[in-house]
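REQUEST
  id: r-88c1
  op: predict_structure
  target: DUF3618 domain-containing protein
  payload:
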Amino acid sequence: MAGDTERIEQDIAQAREDLAKTLDALADRANPQRLAQDAKGKAIAALNQPAVKYTLAGVGVLAVVLVVRKIVR
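RESPONSE
  id: r-88c1
  status: 200
  body:
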């Protein structure tokens, strides 16, 4: 009977440690600063793709041409 009690206490202690590790992992994953850094990294990676980069450059050039054209007229 004493062995059962010790085994149950060890199981409870192990469950507490597992729960603490899980809560720490969740807190790390939900950290707003880390989430913002991840989003920033993904956005920069998307903008550095050649198709996106050249499309944005083309739109920028078109906007400049239209503004200059409007100013001249």
